[in-house]
Specification:
The protein is α/β, with parallel strands linked by helices. The protein contains 24 helices and 25 strands. The radius of gyration is 32 Å and the shape is elongated. The chain binds one RNA strand of 75 nucleotides through strand 8, strand 12, helix 9, strand 13 and helix 12.
RNA sequence: GCGCGAUUAGCUCAGUGGUAGAGCGUUUCAUUGACAUUGAAAAGGUCGGAGGUUCGAUCCCUCCAUCGCGCACCA
């Protein structure tokens, strides 16, 4: 039977959408709907192979990183599916607390409104509306790329079951005594008006000044400071914080200051007597070696303050303005204004010894770029010591492996020095903290001591407000107004998506998952937290292999960014060259763990290659109809036939081990080379002289094998060709025997 | 400051202890039957620098330079 004739050129536009639709209709993306396994697949069918997609933010649209990552995962999933595994690739999105709230707030601002004008409930309605409208955009973009995800299992980090998982996690940590609420110095975004964890900061280089300020010794009563022995010079980039100083610190081994430790200085402007203390954490080589200590507005100073029991003067408020405690002349000023005024005042008093230009980094919010101020705030914390140990052990023991392994260093470096995790955020969009306070006792929380911790008898952890307060039996309980860090819920992704804490069939069958593929910038923000959450809550590691793929940069090696206009939209590439060519271009450049200096030429090469494969198929189908005999007979085989079959076998081996070892780029290069330069340029050319049975059989066989090998990389093209083979054994190449 | 990675053809990148490879670009030739999104051929590299190990180094080691990235208690 003659196969239907193929068009002279491959057209992604006429193919990709049609094929994707057919796949979706087949139901084979869902592991429960796979067709009966072939004899070769049967052994594997008892095993599952699961990947939970890193859920993109609902605010996002697909960028090159997503496209690369999705392609990598699709390659793994498709190969395993063909090998017979029950494969599940679970899609979904993340509610992305701060990011999403910011987007909706921006929308409101156009109408001159703030979230406070609407109130919490109305505002959240708006966010949900926004999510319903735009939240699935990115998932549809995954489809355009050809991702074989099981859409029937799509999850969202705030859907009903997931909420339960988050509550359960909170409950669990609480019962284990891992949660506490305390007023500590945390990172505060003055724009988003919320706390941030250490990982949610970025640093921006800024040209600043280093001021050398004289703090007079209080034992010296003279009006003018002429002699060096009468004052201590401290260096600071932030003179305005001196209003909150409660000590001057030097390194205990610093010979210059030995005689001064224990003495006191009179803090200028504030006229407050503060001690000179010593602390090992002070670097004697910085500035003068003497440092002003502001426990409220610096993380190091906070630690020194705590060790030495220093008083805390909170001089900067949450809006980034000076507080009452900064004194009458400064209260209400913006930080920059206060800085100027403090410097002017000090100059006036001849207390500035000198000023130097100084390049330093200032912390900014990773979501809005706003200024981040360290300041004391009452927050929930998760104790990290034991969880970090769990996470480290899993990797040290080899139960979880990073690919490439060098990233384990980054992982350990963070966990070894990790601080307790500030998990509360002062925003509205997210999982509201499942804590209910006894109203009567709530007042007691409003205390200032850094050591303050909430005693359990003041609140309960519950998913719903109880009718009666179990503590005082009379008040109306109030829920904590904070929400949880978005990463607290993301950390549950691999098991919460499968139904945890319920003991669902899916959880039993598909957890733990096999692979987690992601970019390096969220190794600690997300991966490490998933690992300890999985071990601690689900009782098992969440995955075995962590793939850290390269980052896609511009051709010049710069970060791709929408705001800088250096980004490339994968959807534009798909439109221009097709999804398969785009996938090809991505993987073609994915060599080792190197960052990719993006070159669109690789996508064009992919488009040409797609056409080449198309025409190879066209030639073979013109010659003969495919019988799909897995083992060609050796009758009539000539030297060329044997050679190409040998090379085919070598290629298959290389492609297999390439995919299995997560070396996707080299696998594709090998396959490309075989198809173009061995099969097309040499074998097919020579076979034109023959057209005998041996050549036909060989062509048939090699074509089918090529389609199979290439399918994970370029699924639409290969599927379309497969559909035209008269002797195909399965209804889809997607489920053919690998 | 500590750590990681890179440095190979005009561009983007592979690669190997024994006379260097791909894609794109360039040059020449080839056109009625799979494909011009093609084929055949060619030009083009002292494999960042210096030293070392070795019979032999682009590959291993040391140092240096440049670029990029991460981390840090960035006062």
């Amino acid at each position: 039977m003659q196969a239907k004739e193929l068009a002279p050129a491959y057209s992604p536009k006429d193919t990709e959408e049609k094929i994707y639709q057919a796949w979706e209709e087949s139901g084979y993306f869902n592991p429960d709907n796979l067709p009966p396994p072939t004899a070769e697949q049967a052994g594997n069918r008892k095993k599952t192979y699961t990947i939970a997609v890193p859920p993109p933010n609902v605010t996002g649209s697909l960028h090159m990183g997503h496209a690369l990552n999705a392609t990598i995962q699709d390659i793994l999933i498709r190969k395993k599916r063909m090998e017979g595994y029950k494969t599940l690739w679970l899609p979904g999105t993340d509610h992305a607390g701060i990011a999403t709230q910011n987007v909706v707030e921006k929308d409101l601002k156009k109408q001159g409104l703030t979230r406070h004008d609407l109130g919490r409930e109305k505002f959240l309605e708006k966010v949900w509306e926004w999510k319903e409208k735009y939240g699935d955009i990115i998932l549809n973009q995954f489809k355009k790329l050809g991702s074989s995800m099981d859409w029937s299992r799509t999850r969202f980090t705030m859907d009903e079951g997931y909420q339960k998982a988050v509550e359960q996690a909170f409950h669990h940590y609480h019962k284990k005594g891992r949660l506490y609420k305390a007023e500590k110095v945390i990172n505060w975004c003055t724009r988003c008006q919320t706390s941030l964890s250490d990982l949610e900061l970025e640093y921006k280089e800024e040209a600043g000044k280093l001021w050398y300020i004289r703090y007079p010794l209080s034992e010296v009563k003279g009006e003018k400071l002429k002699v060096k022995s009468e004052y201590v010079v401290v260096a600071t980039t932030r003179p305005e914080t001196m209003l909150g100083d409660s000590a001057v610190a030097v390194n205990p081994d610093d010979k210059r200051y030995q005689g001064l430790i224990g003495k006191k200085v009179l803090l200028p402007i504030m006229n407050r007597e503060i001690p000179i203390i010593s602390d090992e954490e002070i670097d004697a080589t910085f500035g003068t070696g003497a440092v002003k200590v502001t426990p409220a507005h610096d993380l190091l100073d906070a630690r020194i303050g705590e060790k030495n029991n220093l008083p805390i003067y909170k001089v900067i408020g949450q809006l980034g303005k000076m507080t009452e405690e900064a004194g009458a002349g400064f209260a209400g000023l913006k930080i920059a204004e206060a800085r100027e005024k403090v410097v002017a005042e000090l100059k006036n008093q001849n207390l500035i010894e000198k000023e130097e230009n100084y390049q330093h980094n200032v912390a900014v919010c990773y979501r809005c770029g706003g200024v981040v101020e360290p300041l004391p705030s009452l927050q929930w914390f998760l104790k990290m010591e034991e969880l970090a140990k769990l996470a480290m052990d899993a990797v040290k023991s080899g139960k979880i492996k990073f690919h490439p392994q060098s990233w384990e260093k980054v992982y350990f470096a963070w966990l070894e020095n990790v601080r307790d995790w500030n998990i509360s955020r002062q925003i509205w969009w997210g999982h509201q903290i499942p804590v209910f306070y006894c109203s009567k006792k709530l007042e007691k929380f409003k205390v200032k001591s850094l050591k303050f911790k909430v005693d359990e008898e003041y609140f309960i952890v519950a998913d719903k407000k109880p009718k009666q307060c179990p503590i005082c039996k009379e008040c109306e309980m109030v829920q904590d107004t904070d929400v949880l860090d978005t990463w607290f819920s993301s950390a549950l992704w691999p098991f919460a998506t499968l139904g945890w804490p319920e003991k669902t069939k899916d959880l039993k069958e598909f957890y733990p998952t096999q692979v987690l593929s992601t970019a390096r910038d969220i190794i600690n923000l997300w991966v490490s937290r998933m690992i300890f959450s999985g071990l601690e809550l689900a009782g098992e590691k969440p995955f075995t292999d962590v793939i850290i793929h390269g980052t896609i940069l511009t051709k010049e090696g710069r970060r791709m960014s929408k705001s800088l206009g250096t980004g490339i939209d994968p959807m534009v590439l798909i439109e221009k060259y097709g999804a398969d060519a785009t996938r090809f271009g991505l993987i073609w450049q994915a060599m080792g763990n190197q960052d990719i200096h993006w070159d669109e030429a690789a996508v064009m090469a992919g488009k040409k290659f797609a056409n080449k494969v198309w025409n190879i198929a066209r030639f073979v189908l013109q010659q003969t109809s495919l019988t799909n005999d897995p083992r060609p007979t050796t009758n009539g085989h000539q030297k060329e036939d044997k050679e190409i079959l040998e090379k085919l076998a070598e290629t298959k081996k290389a492609v297999e081990s390439g995919i299995d070892n997560y070396d996707f780029g080299p696998a594709l290069h090998t396959l490309y080379d075989f198809v173009w330069h061995e099969l097309a340029d040499k074998y097919i050319e020579s076979s034109k002289q023959r057209q005998d049975e041996g050549a036909q059989q060989t062509l048939n066989y090699v074509l089918l094998e090529v389609l199979k090998m290439l399918h994970p990389f370029m699924p639409h093209l290969t599927e379309e060709i497969y559909q035209d083979l008269s002797g195909k054994k399965q209804d889809f190449l997607m489920v053919e025997t690998w």
